[in-house]
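Case study: SH3 domain-containing protein.
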Amino acid sequence: MEHRGAEGDLRRTIGNLKDYRMRRAAIVLCVALSGFVGWSGSALAQSETAFVAAFSGTWQTLDPAFSGDGACRIVLSGARNNEQYALESSNCAGPMASLQGWAIVDNQLGLLGPERAVIARLGGNQNRMSGQTASGSTVVFERITEEAAAAPAPVDASQATGCVFYGYTATCATPEDLARPTAASEDVKPMAEVLVRLNARSEARPDASVVATIPPNTCVVIDECTTASDGNWCKARISDVSGWIRQQAVRKNRWPIVTYTGKCG
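Here is what the predicted structure looks like once written out:
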């Protein structure tokens, strides 16, 4: 039977992909872009199966707001448990302490608590997801793989050089420079000074879309911060735009730098 319109185009594109991994990734992408609109029951079921297969596995967040004795770790299972998929968690605190399952919720990955209450909604790719909790806090989960666990730990760039450089300078940053920006008092927002030309992104992950590029020596207002394996990410306000900025980067694939500090002015 010939499938017409957007559904037919999506089916033909997926069907022409020979490599299973590419096919699975394409299905997941189609789900995210189409919002399931116009898909038949069988196509929807196949897409959900592919989505579950792609995102099942072990994930963790390093944010202390969600972690207890160690990093909050969750295992997303492909096994169905009534109207949701099974989930196991360890070392989780705050809102993540009550996780009981996961499901596709409004075309996002939803982490569920008691009575299927949505604790957090996440989006992203098969290695890193970011999103919001029900209370509005940002959380980043990163995949933990057997290969990553078995491989020798990579040498941190700062260990190789003995220095994380202060922006584009030859001066080493201090531990204070690498800390999250904090407010001077409870009634004001934290501020940060951007030290380098820096992209602000729509989500707290490197592959998220760029919403603005901030020039060096700019002071920005910080709304919130979160922590991932690549350091702190903070949500900055630039004029009437908000975006996530990464506090540490590597310049020219060699020199580790701090991109902004909590000192402003």
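For the exam, be able to explain this: Residues 53 and 174 are 43 Å apart (CA to CA).
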